[in-house]
Design brief:
The complex is a heterotetramer, with two copies of chain A and two copies of chain B. By secondary structure, chain A is of the alpha/beta class. Chain A folds into two domains: 179 residues, Thiamin diphosphate (ThDP)-binding fold, Pyr/PP domains (Rossmann fold); 125 residues, Rossmann fold, CATH 3.40.50. Chain A has twelve helices and 14 strands. Chain A is globular and about 65 Å long. Chain B folds into two domains: 307 residues, Rossmann fold; 35 residues. In chain B, 42% of the residues lie in helices and 8% in strands. Chain B has a five-stranded parallel sheet with strand order 1-2-3-7-6, with helices on both faces. In chain B, strands 4-5 form a two-stranded antiparallel ribbon. Chain B is globular, with a radius of gyration of 24 Å. Classes of the chains: A alpha/beta, B alpha/beta. Chains in contact: A-B, A-C, A-D, B-C, B-D, C-D. Chains B and D meet through α6, α7, α9 and α10 of B and α7, α8, α10 and α11 of D. The structure holds thiamine diphosphate (2 copies) and magnesium ion (2 copies).
């Protein structure tokens, strides 16, 4: 599933610029697309993702709302019922929590409860994750909440090009999409050429970012660069790691993941969210089930600790980094006690 | 030069933007609920409107008793009756034009029907064969909403979108006294006021949220007094006085349509039945209270007025009641038919397209159903 | 970890009565225990769990609140800060969603953010799950949300005795506890003798409800009776199933689960919540990792479908029942293609 | 007998419980914000109080500039300055007795310090070495609260618990104009009113929520007009007039302590600095606006008043400023020391006891740290 998008104009260099560009192009292409949230208008958002939109499309298309997240998402539901395609910005992950009732009880369920008559093409943009020195409540990774809620798509880009393509796909989707933006990749730069038409991924397709044969790192969002770096470092140890960027947590592209692990025989799931009850449980369980006879070692998880997100000065100890990924890879039973008859 | 050396005296805060921008007085509700029946103004009421309201009230009451009976026969999972509140239900529906939208709460089946919904489709949620049984776009009735007050921001968003589109569409949203305590009520009214959205909020204050009386719900002079805190004008009305509710709501709808923004209407009424068929209301209220309200019954109040003005005789009453009985009989008959359900539909509307997992799960259920089928065949 | 409780009085027969009794005993034992929620006072709750408490302890100890769940949980936080032990009732699972911000950002984090100085001994009682013919929004299984949130304990009883014991333990805990009450077990009866002191389980201990050797059913709450029934039925097929009732999802008693599966070599996780991103992911992943060399077959999951909870007339198709559990057991590779060299 | 045959005329709704129970008039705020400085009433103000306030204001202003400077030196992750709002900050702290509780928002570090908190401990959150750096029970200051308005229900619950315990403890909760739009604001005020909890809500209306001006936040005549909708009396006050804010808050605290229930206070003020050091305020407001408010500066207003009454001379001013400089220097020195952090503490406060998983994770981190240590040793 791919969406062809023709994008013209100057070349953005960062993920934040690509997101901004995606919003602008979507708004230009479809007058039904409306952006709303706190500070998205005059200020252009605290991360500047909506910069210039109010100026270009007017306050009615890019609206500074009152400070109330349930109200923002709840009014977006009504706007979608009338045929608009609202793109909602939550200012930070934890500040979206007041809107969870609207998300769980209405956004996720409206199509289903009305037998498909009232789809809600809403995109909820949520800057998520840590690594930017944010104080309390500014670094949550809440993707497990959305994954557990049937009716939502959950998407997160790890590259500049994907940020553009996935956001366009999310806005074009007739289903509600929770669009998770890795805060610490906002300023990640890339050679991205929006002036030429390009194929961008649709929702639900993972991508193999690096081919390898020894083991598969399954990851997404902010942990993708970490895994790629780990894969480079692993070469020194003689490991040739494959890195799968899921891009879409719901729907999950199981086939890409399963094909990779069946080939490599080993897997590590890597994410920032707390481990227990986090996305990695689903991912590891699915892989362990579907690749059972191909696994040379248990599927391991490298995740944030099972603690509330730490204060800025301690976050480096919490975030899964290259070393921790390599440690996990080292534990993948390269000389299996199992084949050698040892006991677990 | 320190500030001590400066001349100049105290100046008031410089910006007007921090100061009142709206005159609060016109936003406050009257002290007494607005009433028409039993007042001199009643004489001027349009006979056609009164008869229209009356017919709806009689059928509405009958619908409530019939639906409650259907719960006893196991034909409905649950029914939250609006007996005693029919004037609010009917007036809410009739105050709207066809192009307008109604946002009912879980108790407002009757309002949805008065707006033209098929009475059986309207009961789908409560029968349990699906959630929303009708196409919300057909009669512009949003799904009957169970999570309290959560549909209010939807009404605001829809009204706002309509206004942006240049359509003169109004949204009317219904909520109970209990629902006004929810954060969503607050946020909806605030968004509506800031956006000047064409939306009317109707609070049916029936004195209880299940067992919790109004005095434990709020300490406000009235629920209508919440309006001024948003810059929204508020009206207090006798919710059992059908023409009064109709007039107040129609006025609010007209105001919204003309670009005047939202209105908050508090209707004083009473739920004569228990919260639902599953509830035992004697646990939290007295028979005397119920009796007092029964003596202020919306159907009877209007009936008496019509009789007083010579607009209704026994034959008319009988005719209306017969129509109501026919409606009830038809409802009963139709509800006695088992709905045809396809379990496979479980997977059809989660997303526009089934995901891979949903396809696998659908296959599993299909196989199970086939096996069960075979089992019963043998 | 066990808590000795002396309970006197007449013998309750149902789980709802045991819960009621637990509240009453806790309130009698400790004046700091306060109950608050919608309709908990005069009415005694829509499920009658708080019946008689307002009468016995007064409106100030068992309080009908205004209708606002964030307000209920938020004021409970303040009450706990002043030294009380609030027990909050959410009327139904989905109606707790408005309080999720308070739960995630304050209840779960207060102890941690204050370096242990401000623990919040709050119990949040939530009737959860389906099977009672409830209309929309009345049958959600939201345990994945709480499991994903470090700082919360998550507990759910499956028997009358556990209902009493776990609720006493939850109220006695200095940590916040999400106490999930399986709605359809409210009226389950049992021979329970509260008149004699008895040992009740502490939080964090699973229990083997049925010993068996062929495979382990890992389950909790409303699915425990289903699994026990399935285990009985499985005897006819020659399977001797072990049933582990987790009782506590957080902390998870991994040792009991792992010991069981290492012994049986096969496992099925059973719960009502939707499968994808549900609790079973964590459970299956943990088992698959820690029992890797003992597993004869992949860990399977039998769960609700990945759909919003169905309307009453269709819920029987959604809920994991005995047949579906047995089907999964049958797929546990009893004649392993793996040992026999077959490919997956 | 049908109702048509009954005599009897229209009766009003039977129950008083559905009707206003409170007189709304005394709940409404005055049209003009309450002011003392520059009015005849100023002459009667207690010199000791004025000097006390003044000292706090001068040190508070200096604290704000010092903390902002510390962000530039990389010693604070972020600082939301309350420059321009010092009168509200100081008055909130001084209006309370020791046994009372303060519930600050994320911007209210200064109020917490004025209440006695160690200035460095108060900055822990913003320095980033932990979340809440002080023991909330020591000075009865709740954690500085980042999720807006969410601490308001905490204040209500605590005040309610205190009242139930028979303690005459009052809670004062602070929120911004933006925060009043949140559902939690609504629910907190409603609970407070229904429970008659001894709590004072102070809204610092500084005209902006980050970039969003008040006109996009509310259409109400004033934020104080929200009180009547809960049955809560409301006061409007010039938030840059320290003795006026102090008097209004003190009155509200006294009223709460005496069992009179909650009060809503709206203080009109201005945030002179940007939202935080990371914000560029020129994107959303004009220099002229800032200049106008600088001319209504809370420190200068009070300084001028003291001078007018002969209660302050240049020497006194110099002394106060010196004291502020010493405080700032000490703060700078202390903040220049790197905090000693133990990463293992990550696992210590999640629960009363570490779970099995946390023990394993702690072991992992300990091993990593040991390995890293060894690495640096070599
Ligand atoms: C968010 C939410 N919380 C709780 C409930 C459970 N509940 C259903 S009806 C009801 C009382 C509603 O009272 P009110 O708003 O006055 O409406 P009424 O029933 O009187 O029509 C409650 C608490 C719910 N449906 N939604
Ligand atoms: C629930 C929530 N939503 C959003 C934010 C992000 N945020 C931080 S400060 C702020 C503006 C607050 O404005 P106001 O309440 O007027 O307080 P002020 O900053 O003026 O002191 C916003 C939107 C937040 N902290 N919490
Ligand atoms: Mg009611
Ligand atoms: Mg502000």
């Amino acid at each position: 599933m791919t969406t062809a998008v023709t994008a013209t104009g100057r070349r953005p260099a960062t993920m934040s610029q690509a997101l901004n560009r995606a919003l602008r192009d979507a708004m230009a292409a479809d007058p039904a697309v409306h952006v709303l949230g706190e500070d998205v208008g005059t200020l252009g958002g605290v991360f500047r993702i909506t910069a210039g939109l109010a100026e270009e499309f007017g306050d009615d298309r890019c609206t500074d709302t009152p400070l109330a997240e349930a109200g923002i998402l709840g009014t977006a539901v009504g706007m979608a019922m009338y045929g608009l395609r609202p793109v909602v910005e939550m200012q930070f992950d934890a500040f979206g929590y007041p809107s969870l009732e609207q998300l769980f009880s209405h956004v996720a369920k409206m199509r289903n409860r009305t037998r498909g008559r009232l789809p809600l093409p809403i995109t909820v943009r949520i800057p998520y994750g840590g690594g930017i020195g944010g104080v309390e409540h500014h670094s949550d990774s809440s993707e497990a909440l959305y994954m557990a809620t049937p009716g939502l798509h959950v998407v997160t880009p790890a590259t500049v090009a994907d940020a553009y393509g996935l956001l366009r796909a999310a806005i074009a989707s007739d289903d509600p999409v929770v669009f998770l933006e890795p805060k610490r990749l906002y300023w990640a730069k890339a050679d991205w050429e929006p002036d030429r038409p390009e194929e961008v991924p649709g929702i639900g397709t993972a991508v193999v970012r690096r081919r390898g044969s020894s083991a598969t790192l399954i990851t997404y969002g902010p942990s993708v660069p970490v895994c790629l770096e780990a894969a480079e470092a692993a070469r020194a140890e003689g490991w040739d790691l494959e890195v799968v960027d899921l891009r879409s947590l719901v729907p999950l592209d199981e086939e890409t993941v399963v094909a990779s692990v069946r080939r490599t025989g080993r897997a590590v799931v890597v994410h920032e969210a707390a481990g227990f009850g986090g996305p990695g449980g689903e991912l590891a369980a699915t892989v362990a089930e579907r690749c059972f006879h191909h696994l040379e070692a248990p599927v391991l998880r490298v995740t944030g600790f099972d603690v509330p997100y730490p204060p800025p000065m301690l976050e480096k100890h919490h975030l899964p980094g290259v070393d921790r990924v390599l440690d996990a890879v080292a534990r993948l039973q390269w000389e299996s006690e199992w084949t050698s008859g040892g006991a677990n | 030069m320190t500030v001590l050396e400066q001349p100049g005296s105290h100046r008031p805060p410089p910006s007007r933007a921090w100061r009142p921008r709206t005159d609060p007085a016109p936003l406050l509700p009257d002290e007494e609920p607005y009433r028409l029946l039993g007042t001199p103004a009643a004489d001027a009421l349009d006979p056609g409107l009164l008869r229209l309201l009356y017919g709806h009230l009689v059928r509405g009451r009958r619908y409530n008793t019939q639906a409650t009976a259907l719960t006893r026969q196991g034909r409905l999972a649950v029914y939250p009756s609006s007996s005693g509140q029919e004037a609010c239900q009917v007036a809410a529906a009739l105050a709207l034009e066809e192009r307008d939208w109604l946002f009912p709460s879980y108790r407002d089946t009757l309002a949805a029907i008065a707006r033209g919904l098929d009475p059986v489709q309207a009961l789908t949620l409560l029968r349990g064969d699906w959630h929303t049984g009708y196409d919300p776009r057909e009669h512009r009735v949003a799904p009957l909403c169970t999570p309290l007050a959560t549909q209010l921001p939807h009404a605001v968003g829809l009204a706002h979108a309509a206004r942006l589109a240049g359509d003169d569409v109004v949204a009317l949203a219904m909520v109970g006294d209990g629902g006004t305590s929810e954060g969503d009520f607050h946020e909806a009214l605030n968004f509506a006021a800031v956006w000047k959205a064409p939306v009317v909020f109707l609070v049916q204050n029936n004195g209880f949220a299940i067992s919790v009386p109004l005095a434990k719900q709020t300490a406000a002079p009235s629920l209508a007094h919440k309006g001024v805190g948003y810059g929204i004008p508020a009206r207090l009305v006798d919710g059992n006085d059908a023409p009064a509710v109709h007039e107040v709501l129609s006025g609010a709808v007209r105001r919204a349509r003309a670009g005047g923004g939202p209105t908050l209407v508090e209707a004083l009424t009473y739920r004569v039945d228990a919260h639902t068929n599953a509830d035992d209301a004697t646990r939290y209220r007295t028979d005397a209270e119920v009796a007092a309200w029964r003596a202020h019954d919306p159907v009877e109040l209007l009936e008496r007025e019509l009789a007083r003005r010579g607009l209704l005789d026994e034959k008319d009453v009988a005719a209306e009641r017969e129509a109501a009985e026919r409606m009830a009989a038809e409802l009963r008959d139709r509800m006695n038919e088992d709905p045809v359900l396809d379990p496979m539909e479980l997977f059809d509307h989660v997303y526009a397209r089934r995901t891979g997992r949903l396809r696998r799960q659908a296959e599993q259920l299909r196989a199970e159903l086939a096996a069960a089928e075979e089992g019963t065949d043998r």
